[in-house]
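Help wanted!
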Amino acid sequence: MIDDEARCESTPLRYAHTIEMKGNRLGRGLCRLGCVVSLAGCATTGSQRESDTAASASRESEAAARAEGDAQRRAQQARSQQQLRQWMQRESSAALEPRAVRVGDAYEGAVASAGDVTMQRDGDTSVAEFSIGASAPVQCIFSDEIKDQANLLRAVYEDVRRTAAATQIAAIDAGASESNSYIDLHFAYRTRTPAGERVGYMKMRSLTSGDRSVLCMHDEPGFLQTFHRATLPLLRTTPSTSAQRVLVVSLNGNNVGTMSVRRSRDEQDTIEDTTFSTLLARTPVDLLAEDRIDSERFDARGELAARVNGTDENGAIEQKTWQREAATLRYPFEGTHLGRPLRGVVTTREPLRASAAMVIALVRDGVVGRTPAVEREELQESNPLVTTRSRIELVRREGPNRAWIRFVSARDTLDALVDEQGLPLQARITVGTMTLALRAGTAQ
Amino acid sequence: MIRRASLSLVALTLLRCATNAPARTHPTRAARAPASVTNAPSASEPRESLRFLSIAHVELDGPAPRTLAEAQFELSLIDAPPRAITPVRAADDASAPTEQHTQPSFIVDFDQDPLRAQCASATGVTAQALLQRASDMIEHKSMAVGFITASATLRRREGDCTEHSVLAAALLRCNGIAARLSYGLLVVRVGDRIGAGHHMWTERYEGGWRVADATFPERDAEVVHLRLGSLTDEGPAGLSDGRRDTLLSLRAVRVRAR
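Answered by r_m:
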């Protein structure tokens, strides 16, 4: 139950705000999720009303009145900030019990709830709503497929930002289980009401669960750990088959996103799909969301047959495709680059080999110290019509089933620990002052 | 695969540079966007707020210089000796423009729609007016845009310093003014505070290469541009230039009064 002393000063404002969540499945065009989100804004009043100015036309008295108004406003803001800080410490003392969440016959997962879970169906989405012992419920929106994890969060944030008086990004985090992952975005916002301004705090979690995307939201200051515990079962109870390896991405020690790898077979070829979702706060109010998928198709010899790269950067989608002409060293390219169409042909000196194939071969057959590093030409997104040279080395083995691999180019070096299938377990790259690390998630 | 994805994330943090946020763009944002050098709103806050994305650490060596024009600058680098650097002045680089500086390229693509039509109508105006026009065309000052071409910038009408630079270069060149794209650091002084950040800008040729920065066509704050290099390849490689690595290795900018 909510501590009475910390109860909101007034009845929480609740207004239905239809938000279009634009989940772009790369390469498949724009998909839309529709939902109704209640923005409570129930926290302290952070009034920005202008103080009454004196009727006198005197410049001095106007300045004095303005100064007094400024002082009053600052004092009020300080009280609001203190009160918000108190409310942010709140957690629910209600017992959260596992409750099943079902979407038709295709999905069954679980949340931790203080009461029953209600489900509503709307087109290709389902919305679950449940209590965590706070004033506002948690809403979780289930899509029927995997959406762009980072841009889903950004789309909701931008929709709120359009109508709120002000927003401020508070936190970004990420985590993973064996086959699912989540990215968190928290932000504070101010809304204007007839009674003055209200300050609110929104917690959002974009998850994968059972090969579909789930977006959970709780719009009330505080309850950070409660929200985390309530939604964590979605990560664990319903594994996804769309990923064989899921890692958490961090930049200079801060969790900023997730990465997943999946391999599949198609006749004699192997296809490796790598997805990468990151969310960065570029300023206290500006988000940069990138969802990327990179797909390589290679044959039994490890030779690249095709490569497709798709990125969704804050809603701007670019796709790049290289497709080898059979039995040649020509790789025609078509796609969008730097915002404009680009076409051309990449001609190489040797057949291009897929990274995955080379890593698998090194792990399987390589001998540390005796196997020379594998040199190769590779395609590059930064300059799609030109290849670059790089090297892959077997650095050392860790037991029978793991090995450290080093990817070296003219400008950078990445070290990765891979398993016997060549799938990454962890990785690290440092470029100047930035260190990017990938590691297995142990979400709890 | 992880290497490519990793490098793309590193690239996302590169050269996401300065932008201004004039009040007319978005009242709410402008009201909440203080200059990076002063986080507390004040009565003397410039009308145009400067926001940096990739902030460089500034170290003041001794008393603050009276003006940035009188200051000395030094780059403190990781794994390299310190390097003195001077603000851009036309007299320092009088190298003649090349054909690249007057023709369209993949990045400065004023031969592509919709920019081609804009170029046709933007003739006979001054360089300063062209910079203002470029700034006005970019209605949404946003740091969330990656590096895109001039024609893409005009379609999207949003961007930061990189978009202002390529669009300004396009308008200058189609008016017969030689222009190039330079990158480095912008040092800003607001009141008694000095800040710096990664930046890209246009330079035009007039007896030497002069700053023509569309990101700040009118500015209230005192700024200087510290050039690390100019793009020689305006093809699809874009900003994939090894000289940018200096920015990645930058530890601090030291500022000293003469």
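OP: Thanks! One thing I noticed: Helices of chain B lie at 2-12, 27-32, 115-121, 127-137, 150-156, 161-173, 245-248.
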